[in-house]
Design a protein that fits this description.
The structure is a single chain. This protein is of the alpha/beta class. It has helices spanning 20-26, 94-106, 126-134, 144-148, 169-197; strands at residues 10-13, 36-38, 58-66, 76-84, 89-91, 112-118, 139-141, 155-163. The protein has a single domain, classed as Rossmann fold (3-Layer(aba) Sandwich), CATH 3.40.50.1580. The protein contains five helices and eight strands.
Length: 199
C-alpha cells in the first residue's frame, strides 16, 4: 500500500476499529500513517488535530447508518453532498470524488452516490429514519460535516453502511462489526493503491 497521489490527503476516521487492518498497515507505510486522523466519535478528538492537517484534501471515512431502504450493511456510499442538522450543506469536491469513484470502478468495487446527513446523536428508530429519508437524505453519520467543514482543500466522504433503514441498527452493527471493519480495510487499501498508481 502506497500513499495516495495527493500526499496531503487527510483520511479521517472516528476510530481505528472502523478499518483496523488498514490502520495497522498504514503504520508501516511511509507518508501515509501521519495522514490518518482519528477524530473520535462525534469528533470528540477534533481539537487535537494539528491545523496544518486541514490544508490539503480531506476524506471523511467510516461507518454510516442507512436511510435509503435499498442500502444494506456493507454497501458503500460516496457522498455528493454532506448536510448538517442546522441545514448547512457542503458540496463534495467534484474532482476528488471523481478520482475516488474511478478508483472504485477500476477495482470493481460497487458503490452508490447520495446525500449524507451528519447528526449529533444516533438515529435508530424506523420512524425517524423515514422522516429523514423524506427530506432527501440517504445515510446518516455523526462526523462528516464537522470534519469536512475544516477542510481548506478538496473534500470527499466515503461511508460503509453499518445498519439498515429499520429498527435493527444495534443488532446489525453488533453482528457484523468485525466483518465490516475487514471489508472497509480492503476497500481503503485498494482505493489508496489505485490513487497512488494514478499519480
Amino acid at each position: 500500500m502506497k500513499p495516495p497521489a495527493s500526499a496531503s490527503l487527510a483520511l479521517c476516521l472516528a476510530s481505528p476499529k472502523e478499518a483496523a487492518e488498514f490502520c495497522r498497515r498504514a503504520e508501516k507505510t511511509a507518508g501515509l500513517a501521519g495522514n490518518i486522523l482519528l477524530t473520535g466519535y462525534r469528533n470528540a478528538s477534533l481539537d487535537t488535530v494539528p491545523p496544518q492537517k486541514w490544508a490539503g484534501d480531506v476524506l471523511a471515512a467510516g461507518f454510516a447508518g442507512a436511510l435509503r431502504p435499498t442500502l444494506d450493511p456493507g454497501d458503500l456510499l460516496l457522498a455528493e453532498r454532506v448536510c448538517s442538522e442546522d441545514a448547512g450543506v457542503l458540496e463534495t469536491s467534484a474532482s476528488l470524488t471523481r478520482s475516488i469513484a474511478t478508483a472504485l470502478r477500476e477495482e470493481n468495487i460497487p458503490y452508490v452516490t447520495g446525500t449524507l446527513l451528519t447528526v449529533s446523536r444516533a438515529v435508530t428508530g424506523a420512524s425517524k429514519k423515514r422522516e429523514l429519508r423524506g427530506k432527501g437524505f440517504d445515510a446518516v453519520d455523526m462526523e462528516s460535516h464537522g470534519l469536512l467543514a475544516h477542510g481548506r482543500g478538496r473534500i470527499a466522504a466515503l461511508r460503509l453502511i453499518s445498519d439498515r433503514a429499520d429498527e435493527t441498527a444495534a443488532s446489525d452493527y453488533a453482528a457484523a462489526r468485525d466483518a465490516l471493519s475487514e471489508k472497509f480495510s480492503r476497500v481503503l487499501g485498494r482505493v489508496f493503491d489505485r490513487l497512488s498508481r494514478s499519480s
